[in-house]
Amino acid sequence: MHIDIDQLDNGKLLPLVEEFYTLQGEGYHTGKAAYFIRIGGCDIGCSWCDAKFTWNPKNFPPVKVENIVKNALEQPAKVVVVTGGEPSMYPLDCLCQKLKENSIDTYIETSGAYPLTGQWDWICLSPKSQHPPINGVHMKADELKVIISKPEDIQWAEENAKKVKSTCKLYLQPEWSVYNSIIQNIVDYVMQNPKWQISLQAHKFMRIP
Predict the structure, then answer these.
(1) Strands 169-174 and 143-148: what pairing?
(2) Among 44, 112, 151, 193, which residue's CB has the most CB atoms within a 10 Å radius?
């Protein structure tokens, strides 16, 4: 679902769901302390999504970017991860500008379904087959992280891997609710195709946000 962009004053306001300080639990930066900014609104519709409560942005009144940045600056780590929902639905230039003015590294996690705005130190692309990335997004990705809920999803991962730059890190990540039934397929595949690595949702094993 979408929110009227005019209500956001060109990105000076964002439909903030939550913000919290924790460790990155997935992908290349697993284990790194970071401040997470979760933005509401998503129309990708993943059946296994563990954040469906974020889908309707109208449930989250717009918050001033200045307040979000102020909270981020209070944390020891100078890394912010912007996630959702689908954060690329909104103009993020203002947020990134104010974070960069304060020497904070900016990371984003996106499906790539919409044009990417903002200045990013790290872009994690997690493409979804029901709403594929738009043209040009793959070449911006520093990390390709594909969620695997069934063996057939690996083919989708390979299709996307053909579109990223040679330096992009490649990850297959088991979908949490079917972890026990799918993990061996992924292990076997990575052992036969070592260009890939496995990403685990380490934060769930550690029982942290």
Answers:
(1) parallel
(2) 112
CATH number of 173's domain? 3.20.20.70
Q: Tell me the two tokens of residue 154.
A: 């690996």
Q: Cα–Cα distances in Å, from 19 out to 16, 63, 82, 154?
A: 8, 11, 9, 32
- Sequence-distant (6+) residues with CB within 8 A of 84 are 17, 38, 39, 40, 41, 42, 51, 54, 109, 110
Residue of higher predicted confidence among 46 and 138: 138
Give tens-digit pLDDT for 71-129.
Answer: 999 999 999 999 999 999 999 999 999 999 999 999 999 999 999 999 999 999 999 99
- Assess contact for 121 and 105: CB atoms under 8 A: yes
SS3 72: helix
Number of domains in the chain: 1
State the residue range of the domain holding 163: 5-206
With 70 as the cut, is the pLDDT of residue 4 above it? no
Cα→Cα distances 35→20, 23, 26, Å: 6, 8, 14
